[in-house]
Design a protein that fits this description.
Helix content: 40-55%
Number of helices: 11
Shape: globular
Largest sheet: 6 strands, mixed
Order of helices and strands: EHEEEHHEHEHEHEEEEHEEHHHH
Number of domains: 3
Strand content: 15-25%
Distance between the termini: 7 Å
Length: 342
């Protein structure tokens, strides 16, 4: 089996890191709730309380006991949120060298930065989730261990777009420059390639925006996360509708610098069965088909052995074709023949 559980000291460190990270995210969300500033503005000799968020000033009324309390409460809450966030961030930075020394850093740094940026923009888990090889980092974090390096290593990241969430994207969180601008804020060397759905940086790290083929493909508009002209347009791939319609899972993973990053992925059972199907498609290269099957078996075994609450006979798998669900036993059968943990 290509999975090794964490040692007890590693498990304790991961748990501590997760708690501190959750505290930092709580502080971040509180800061977002108290974004902007409150200040007094004198108009015709009278003070008025204004709240600025972005480029807009909104009047909250003339100076009074109530508006003074409003400003004091806002300033105090924002200061508390900043203190919570910054203290947790400092603690995370202190833990990073220990995380590296303990061998916990697994996710490529560039992938972690992309995930954090997507999460900050409110896109991760709402309109975009992670599929492909990088998802193995999420599953191993859920199970408390590590896959073999050759199974989980990759030089790209696949962003699965759910167009049903398009209208729910908040305009104040989605960047004005779209996904292209977001990725370039992570690494200025990212450039959109001619195919329109992919970006690459100077190190040839690839980011793909992918989506399922719509039911009425001939009449459906191009699938893009926002409405920014010139932004990435998802490449439509058959079979992805199963992943979009299936449940999602999340975990905090550790990058190669020892820093945490959020990850939201398709359910590992969907991943395993979808990979099994992909491994048998005729238009896929033989080497990729072999790796697809190896990943399908490894994740299927992980679910059966280390995530017993996720059953392959559960009704939550009904978004998958029955013919594919019926093949879950193949994964468990192959996995059990591989032997014990290494």
């Amino acid at each position: 089996m290509n999975f090794r559980p964490l040692r007890l000291d590693q498990s304790r460190q991961v748990a501590d890191l997760g708690q501190v990270y959750a505290t930092m995210i709580d502080g971040r969300d509180r800061l977002a709730h108290h974004r902007g500033t409150m200040r007094w503005k004198t108009i015709k000799g009278r003070d008025y309380l204004y709240r600025r968020s972005g480029v807009k000033d909104v009047s909250l009324g003339p100076r009074s006991a109530d508006t003074e309390k409003t400003k004091a409460a806002f300033d105090e809450a924002k200061a508390d949120a900043r203190a919570i966030h910054d203290a947790a961030r400092r603690r995370i930075e202190e833990m990073a060298p220990v995380n590296r020394a303990m061998g916990l850093g697994r996710l490529p740094v560039i992938a972690a930065r992309i995930l954090r940026k997507l999460d900050d923009a409110g896109l991760l888990g709402s309109s975009v989730c992670i599929v492909g090889t990088n998802a193995l980092h999420c599953y191993e974090a859920m199970a408390g261990g590590h896959f073999a390096t050759e199974l989980a290593s990759t030089e790209d990241i696949d962003l699965l777009f759910d167009s049903r969430a398009h209208m729910q994207i908040a305009s104040d969180t989605f960047p004005a420059a779209g996904l292209v601008g977001m990725l370039q804020s992570v690494d200025r060397s990212f450039r959109k390639l001619a195919n329109g759905f992919r970006m690459a940086n100077r190190d040839n790290y690839l980011v793909d925006l992918i989506a399922p083929v719509p039911k009425d493909a001939a009449r459906s508009p191009p699938q893009r996360v926002g409405d920014v002209e010139g932004d990435l347009v998802a490449v439509e791939i058959r079979g992805l509708e199963w992943l979009v319609n299936g449940p999602k899972v999340s975990a905090v993973v550790v990058d190669m610098r020892g820093l945490p990053a959020p990850m939201v992925c398709v359910d590992p059972r969907y991943f395993a069965l979808h990979k099994l199907w992909v491994s048998e498609t005729d238009d896929r290269e033989a080497a990729r088909r072999r790796r697809d099957r190896a990943q399908a078996v490894a994740v299927g075994n992980l679910v059966t052995t280390h995530l017993p609450s996720l059953r392959f006979d559960d009704r939550s798998l009904e978004a998958l074709p029955k013919a594919l669900r019926d093949r879950a036993g193949e994964l468990a059968g192959e996995a059990s023949a591989e032997g014990a943990d290494w």
